[in-house]
Amino acid sequence: MTKNTKVNAAILIIGNEILSGRTQDTNTSSIALWLNSIGITVNEVRVIPDIEGTIIDTVNYLRKANDYVFTTGGIGPTHDDITAQSISRAFKLEYEIHKDAFKILEAYYEQGEFNEGRQKMVWMPRNANLILNPTSGAPGFNIENVFCLPGVPSILKSMLGGLQNKIVGGKPILSHTISLRTVESEIAKSLTDVQDNNKNLEIGSYPFFQAGKLGVSIVIRSEDQSKIDKCSKEILNFVDEKKIKIVDR
């Protein structure tokens, strides 16, 4: 891949706790923002349960449809952490103890603390590449274009930097936000006209409620700052004509 190539990814959130609402997913935002910063567009995000067949089928579909796949969750020490085993079966690889991962965790824990439950975290697909974990020791792993990360948000964030040299991105995806004191229906036609004039970038409108008043944030995204500037100017022109107030958020 070259720096001018469009690079895409999918994010796969694995865990019954997300689907039940007991745990709030913040990992999607962390991964997507990081990927955008290195020029990778997120094509889709899926949330699936801890069911082996579902994990296998979804991973096999996503890894063929995207340049990269990032999974979160299911690589801990408990009985329902089945992501590593499922990934092994998706790639038709042996599920076995990763010797380097074993050494890392054996050194990380005090003598006697590296029990059978914790040793489950060193079982991975054969020949998996480790993703080092500077926070809690237990590494993630990748096989080909699939990168498996833990579900704990603070740990996941600390591991993203270690992936920098393993992933080839494109141009960083830039963005600019204009927040307005208005409603979407008031600007819909004008915004459509601007989008029609700027087909090579992305314009999104997102309603918000702040200080008891409605508003809309317009987000312009592109790899080219000059295109963002041109589009922003066109938006500000109709904002001025309609006498819509610009607000800080």
Low-confidence stretches: none
Mean pLDDT: 93
Going by CATH, the homologous superfamily of the largest domain would be MoaB/Mog-like domain
| Cα-atom radius of gyration | 22 Å
The percentage helix is 25-40%
Largest sheet entry: 6 strands, mixed
Strand order of the largest sheet: 2-1-3-8-7-6
> What is the CATH C-level name of the largest domain?
Alpha Beta
Note the gap between the termini.
37 Å
Given the helix and strand composition, which structural class is it?
alpha/beta
Number of strand segments: 12
Shape, per Cα inertia axes:
elongated
Summarize it:
With 249 residues, the chain is an alpha/beta fold. A six-stranded mixed sheet has the order 2-1-3-8-7-6, with helices on both faces. The chain has a four-stranded antiparallel sheet with strand order 10-11-9-12, covered by helices on one side. The chain has two domains: 7-166, MoaB/Mog-like domain (Molybdenum Cofactor Biosythetic Enzyme, Chain A), CATH 3.40.980.10; 174-246, Alpha-Beta Plaits, CATH 3.30.70.600.
Descriptive notes:
The chain is an alpha/beta fold and 249 residues long. The chain has two domains: 7-166, 3-Layer(aba) Sandwich (Molybdenum Cofactor Biosythetic Enzyme, Chain A); 174-246, Alpha-Beta Plaits (2-Layer Sandwich). It is 36% helix and 27% strand. The protein contains nine helices and twelve strands. It has a six-stranded mixed β-sheet, with helices on both faces. A four-stranded antiparallel β-sheet has the order 10-11-9-12, with helices on one face. Strands 4-5 form a two-stranded antiparallel ribbon. Helix 3 (52-65) packs across helix 4 and helix 8 crosses helix 9. The longest helix is centred in the C-terminal third of the chain and has 17 residues, at 225-241. The two termini are 37 Å apart. The model has no long low-confidence stretch (mean pLDDT 93).
